[in-house]
Amino acid sequence: MSILAWILLGLVAGAIAKWIHSGKDPGGWLVTILIGIVGAVVGGFITRAVGLGAATGFNLWSILVAVLGAVICLWAYRRFA
Fold this sequence. Notes:
The protein is mainly α.
């Protein structure tokens, strides 16, 4: 995927993760986008590690994987920040 697609996927995943895991955050929308992008990478790593396949392209599976990773990253960010 291109950089623009990763940023767009990160925005979507970060916004959905923030909606799922709502509460006070020390960061704003930029941090949410960054957490979404990192979450997409983390989610892809987790799904490949357990044998579910990688996220490819901008589709429903990629969004679900990115949101899963973003929720994990958002939880960790709130826990340790």
